[in-house]
Design goal:
Layout: H1 2-32, H2 41-67, H3 74-100, H4 107-136, H5 146-183
Protein backbone atom coordinates (compact mmCIF):
# COMPACT_ATOMS: atom_id res chain seq x y z
CA UNK A 1 0.00 0.00 0.00
CA UNK A 2 2.82 2.43 0.75
CA UNK A 3 4.29 1.73 -2.71
CA UNK A 4 0.99 2.81 -4.24
CA UNK A 5 1.02 6.05 -2.27
CA UNK A 6 4.57 6.79 -3.27
CA UNK A 7 3.78 6.03 -6.90
CA UNK A 8 0.70 8.25 -6.83
CA UNK A 9 2.57 11.08 -5.09
CA UNK A 10 5.53 10.67 -7.39
CA UNK A 11 3.31 10.80 -10.46
CA UNK A 12 1.30 13.72 -9.11
CA UNK A 13 4.43 15.65 -8.20
CA UNK A 14 5.97 15.02 -11.62
CA UNK A 15 2.73 16.05 -13.33
CA UNK A 16 2.49 19.19 -11.21
CA UNK A 17 6.11 20.11 -11.90
CA UNK A 18 5.63 19.50 -15.62
CA UNK A 19 2.50 21.66 -15.64
CA UNK A 20 4.23 24.45 -13.71
CA UNK A 21 7.21 24.29 -16.08
CA UNK A 22 4.94 24.62 -19.11
CA UNK A 23 3.06 27.51 -17.54
CA UNK A 24 6.27 29.28 -16.53
CA UNK A 25 7.86 28.86 -19.95
CA UNK A 26 4.72 30.04 -21.74
CA UNK A 27 4.48 33.08 -19.44
CA UNK A 28 8.21 33.85 -19.62
CA UNK A 29 8.02 35.89 -22.82
CA UNK A 30 5.44 38.23 -21.28
CA UNK A 31 7.16 38.42 -17.92
CA UNK A 32 10.63 39.00 -19.35
CA UNK A 33 9.60 41.04 -22.41
CA UNK A 34 10.78 44.57 -22.78
CA UNK A 35 8.78 47.06 -20.72
CA UNK A 36 5.54 48.34 -22.16
CA UNK A 37 5.83 51.63 -23.94
CA UNK A 38 5.25 54.57 -21.66
CA UNK A 39 2.14 56.63 -22.09
CA UNK A 40 2.58 59.77 -24.13
CA UNK A 41 2.36 62.85 -21.93
CA UNK A 42 1.06 64.84 -24.90
CA UNK A 43 -1.74 62.33 -25.56
CA UNK A 44 -2.59 62.21 -21.85
CA UNK A 45 -2.89 66.00 -21.79
CA UNK A 46 -4.99 66.06 -24.96
CA UNK A 47 -7.30 63.34 -23.61
CA UNK A 48 -7.84 65.42 -20.48
CA UNK A 49 -8.65 68.47 -22.61
CA UNK A 50 -11.08 66.57 -24.80
CA UNK A 51 -12.65 65.12 -21.64
CA UNK A 52 -13.36 68.65 -20.35
CA UNK A 53 -14.83 69.63 -23.70
CA UNK A 54 -16.97 66.47 -23.79
CA UNK A 55 -18.34 67.13 -20.30
CA UNK A 56 -19.41 70.65 -21.33
CA UNK A 57 -20.84 69.24 -24.54
CA UNK A 58 -22.88 66.65 -22.62
CA UNK A 59 -24.16 69.31 -20.20
CA UNK A 60 -25.25 71.57 -23.06
CA UNK A 61 -26.87 68.64 -24.88
CA UNK A 62 -28.74 67.77 -21.68
CA UNK A 63 -29.96 71.39 -21.42
CA UNK A 64 -31.10 71.31 -25.03
CA UNK A 65 -32.90 68.02 -24.48
CA UNK A 66 -34.82 69.66 -21.63
CA UNK A 67 -35.65 72.58 -23.96
CA UNK A 68 -37.83 70.24 -26.04
CA UNK A 69 -40.10 69.87 -23.01
CA UNK A 70 -40.27 73.60 -22.31
CA UNK A 71 -41.86 76.61 -23.90
CA UNK A 72 -38.56 78.24 -24.88
CA UNK A 73 -38.36 79.93 -28.26
CA UNK A 74 -36.59 78.52 -31.29
CA UNK A 75 -33.96 81.24 -30.75
CA UNK A 76 -33.06 79.66 -27.39
CA UNK A 77 -32.70 76.32 -29.15
CA UNK A 78 -30.56 77.93 -31.84
CA UNK A 79 -28.27 79.54 -29.26
CA UNK A 80 -27.83 76.26 -27.39
CA UNK A 81 -27.17 74.21 -30.53
CA UNK A 82 -24.55 76.80 -31.49
CA UNK A 83 -22.78 76.19 -28.17
CA UNK A 84 -22.96 72.45 -28.80
CA UNK A 85 -21.55 72.94 -32.29
CA UNK A 86 -18.64 74.92 -30.86
CA UNK A 87 -17.88 72.10 -28.38
CA UNK A 88 -18.01 69.53 -31.19
CA UNK A 89 -15.67 71.65 -33.32
CA UNK A 90 -13.24 72.12 -30.43
CA UNK A 91 -13.37 68.38 -29.72
CA UNK A 92 -12.66 67.77 -33.41
CA UNK A 93 -9.60 70.01 -33.24
CA UNK A 94 -8.34 68.14 -30.18
CA UNK A 95 -9.03 64.81 -31.88
CA UNK A 96 -6.98 65.97 -34.87
CA UNK A 97 -4.08 66.72 -32.50
CA UNK A 98 -4.56 63.29 -30.93
CA UNK A 99 -4.29 61.68 -34.37
CA UNK A 100 -1.11 63.67 -35.02
CA UNK A 101 0.34 62.31 -31.76
CA UNK A 102 -0.65 58.65 -32.36
CA UNK A 103 2.92 57.61 -33.22
CA UNK A 104 4.03 58.42 -29.66
CA UNK A 105 0.91 57.01 -27.98
CA UNK A 106 0.84 53.80 -25.97
CA UNK A 107 -1.46 50.99 -27.16
CA UNK A 108 -4.32 51.89 -24.81
CA UNK A 109 -4.05 55.55 -25.87
CA UNK A 110 -4.25 54.54 -29.53
CA UNK A 111 -7.31 52.45 -28.70
CA UNK A 112 -8.91 55.45 -27.00
CA UNK A 113 -8.29 57.63 -30.07
CA UNK A 114 -9.68 54.92 -32.36
CA UNK A 115 -12.85 54.57 -30.28
CA UNK A 116 -13.42 58.31 -29.82
CA UNK A 117 -13.13 59.08 -33.55
CA UNK A 118 -16.28 57.37 -34.91
CA UNK A 119 -18.38 58.47 -31.95
CA UNK A 120 -17.39 62.11 -32.39
CA UNK A 121 -18.09 61.88 -36.14
CA UNK A 122 -21.54 60.45 -35.44
CA UNK A 123 -22.18 63.20 -32.90
CA UNK A 124 -21.10 65.87 -35.40
CA UNK A 125 -23.50 64.41 -37.96
CA UNK A 126 -26.33 64.45 -35.41
CA UNK A 127 -25.63 68.08 -34.52
CA UNK A 128 -25.59 69.01 -38.21
CA UNK A 129 -28.96 67.29 -38.74
CA UNK A 130 -30.38 69.10 -35.70
CA UNK A 131 -29.18 72.48 -36.99
CA UNK A 132 -30.55 71.86 -40.50
CA UNK A 133 -33.91 70.74 -39.18
CA UNK A 134 -34.16 73.74 -36.85
CA UNK A 135 -33.36 76.17 -39.69
CA UNK A 136 -36.14 74.72 -41.83
CA UNK A 137 -38.69 74.09 -39.06
CA UNK A 138 -38.40 76.81 -36.44
CA UNK A 139 -42.01 76.37 -35.39
CA UNK A 140 -41.65 72.61 -34.82
CA UNK A 141 -39.28 72.39 -31.88
CA UNK A 142 -41.52 70.27 -29.69
CA UNK A 143 -42.33 67.45 -32.10
CA UNK A 144 -40.49 64.70 -33.94
CA UNK A 145 -38.22 64.53 -35.82
CA UNK A 146 -36.61 67.55 -34.11
CA UNK A 147 -37.02 66.07 -30.62
CA UNK A 148 -35.49 62.83 -31.94
CA UNK A 149 -32.45 64.71 -33.28
CA UNK A 150 -31.99 66.46 -29.97
CA UNK A 151 -32.37 63.21 -28.00
CA UNK A 152 -29.86 61.50 -30.30
CA UNK A 153 -27.39 64.34 -29.80
CA UNK A 154 -27.81 64.06 -26.06
CA UNK A 155 -27.33 60.27 -26.10
CA UNK A 156 -24.21 60.51 -28.26
CA UNK A 157 -22.77 63.32 -26.14
CA UNK A 158 -23.37 61.25 -23.00
CA UNK A 159 -21.70 58.20 -24.57
CA UNK A 160 -18.72 60.27 -25.75
CA UNK A 161 -18.27 61.93 -22.38
CA UNK A 162 -18.44 58.58 -20.58
CA UNK A 163 -16.02 56.90 -22.98
CA UNK A 164 -13.41 59.63 -22.67
CA UNK A 165 -13.84 59.85 -18.89
CA UNK A 166 -13.28 56.09 -18.62
CA UNK A 167 -10.08 56.23 -20.65
CA UNK A 168 -8.76 59.19 -18.66
CA UNK A 169 -9.60 57.37 -15.41
CA UNK A 170 -7.86 54.24 -16.72
CA UNK A 171 -4.72 56.23 -17.52
CA UNK A 172 -4.73 57.83 -14.08
CA UNK A 173 -5.24 54.47 -12.33
CA UNK A 174 -2.55 52.84 -14.48
CA UNK A 175 -0.05 55.57 -13.62
CA UNK A 176 -0.92 55.35 -9.94
CA UNK A 177 -0.50 51.56 -10.01
CA UNK A 178 2.86 51.82 -11.78
CA UNK A 179 4.07 54.48 -9.34
CA UNK A 180 3.07 52.27 -6.43
CA UNK A 181 4.79 49.30 -8.08
CA UNK A 182 8.01 51.30 -8.38
CA UNK A 183 7.73 52.42 -4.77
CA UNK A 184 7.29 48.82 -3.65
CA UNK A 185 10.01 47.68 -6.07
CA UNK A 186 7.67 45.18 -7.71
CA UNK A 187 9.54 43.24 -10.43
CA UNK A 188 8.63 44.16 -13.98
CA UNK A 189 7.36 47.64 -13.15
Amino acid sequence: MSKTRISIWGTTTKSTLALLSVLFLSAAPTVFASPRPNDSEEVTKLLSEVKSEAVQLKDDAEDMNSFTKSKLSWQSHAAKIEQIKQHVNKSGELLSKLHDAKASASPWQNQAIDEITPLLKELASSVTSTIEHLRKNQGRIHTPPYTDYVASTYDLATDLSGLIANYVAYGEAKNKSEDLGKKLEVPGV
